[in-house]
Amino acid sequence: MNTDELARVAAWMTAHVPGFQGPVRAEKFVVGQSNPTFQLESPSGAYVLRRKPAGDLLKSAHAVDREFRVQRALAGTSVPVPQVFALCEDKTVLGSMFYVMEHIDGRNHVDPSLPGETAKGRAAIVDEMSRVLAAIHDVDLAAVGLEDFGAPGNYHARQLGRWTKQYRASETEELRDMETLMSWLGEAMPEEDGQRTLVHGDYRIDNLLFAADGSACVAVLDWELSTLGHPYADLAGVLMQWQLPPGAEGRGLSGVDRAALGLPSDADFVADYCARRGIDGIDSLGFYVSFAFFRMAAILQGVKKRALDGNAANPEKALKLGAYVPLFAKLGLEARHRYG
């Protein structure tokens, strides 16, 4: 942000954020490809600002207003979220919609193999992931005012239509595996089973903050894709992430000896989740994981297109992420048979 933008943000915060005192300094977080995020420092303390990116955007993407609403609704529940202070819809302040929330100190684990942790520590952290995921899906929607947070009807059918449209809008080349995957998902769609819960939409370990001195989750971040839908979409997203290559780029557990590290198998993680939610098991798990790969491929295709159009928060990283689209499509096809 330039000097004029910082001055306008400080003036807006003075009017809308209780206890705020300017002036303010801003440092952009290098992580994240969707909504530019800044740490703000001021005499009254540290804050975080999340804004929509500049430029032409896909319809319904970068929904910072939805992030703001869901985090405000979850305050005081068993789902840990930052306190959100105010939402700015006045584009004259910063050029796009943004909101300001509290800054939470915590550990962010980018690599799901959790290097540097003991086996016991890893097990505790992943168990906490399971607990928080179940807590999200057990939120009483009426009690927190989120009964209208998503459209009615078959969630996966709706999502397949949405992300197919988003993918087509950002498509840069034809990928045979992606075409096959989209076609199969339409044919294999499970029948509605009546489950409709809050869904985070991008639940993975690097979107969680953990206590500095333990395994407790202190904040769930990045609610841009949250909605009301089928809870298995979030569960499948965790399993999808673990099928990716290990390391800084893939951030997965493919080929990793999980037992030696104290990490659960996919089956153990699913069983723990089911026990927490009081369900017997999950039918058609392969569909849900395949769908997770498809949706992430569509998201990454959008990241790639924004980089090519000059609108990415981190263009170099965005192009690297976009290169994973063919892999996600391929793994999506393989997941049809891996999980049954």
Shape: globular
Kindly report how far apart the N and C termini lie.
49 Å
CATH homologous superfamily placement of the largest domain: Aminoglycoside phosphotransferase (APH), C-terminal lobe
Low-confidence stretches: none
Explain what you see:
It is a single chain. This protein folds into 2 domains: 100 residues, Phosphorylase Kinase, domain 1 (2-Layer Sandwich); 220 residues, Aminoglycoside 3'-phosphotransferase, Chain: A, domain 2 (Alpha-Beta Complex), CATH 3.90.1200.10. Helix 7 crosses helix 11 and helix 7 packs parallel to helix 13. The chain is built from 13 helices and 9 strands. The protein is 45% helix and 12% strand. Strands 1-2-3-5-4 form a 5-stranded antiparallel beta sheet, sandwiched between helices. The model has no long low-confidence stretch (mean pLDDT 92). With 340 residues, the chain is α+β, with helices and mostly antiparallel strands.
Question: In terms of topology, how is this protein built?
Answer:
Blueprint: H1 3-16, E1 25-28, E2 37-42, E3 45-51, H2 64-74, E4 84-88, H3 91-94, E5 98-102, H4 119-137, H5 141-144, H6 155-170, H7 176-187, E6 197-199, E7 208-210, E8 217-220, E9 227-229, H8 232-242, H9 258-261, H10 266-277, H11 285-309, H12 315-322, H13 325-338
Antiparallel strand pairs: 1-2, 2-3, 3-5, 4-5, 6-9, 7-8
Helix pairs in contact: 4-10, 6-11, 7-11, 7-13, 8-11, 11-12, 11-13
EC number: 2.7.1.-
GO molecular function, one term: transferase activity
Keywords: Transferase
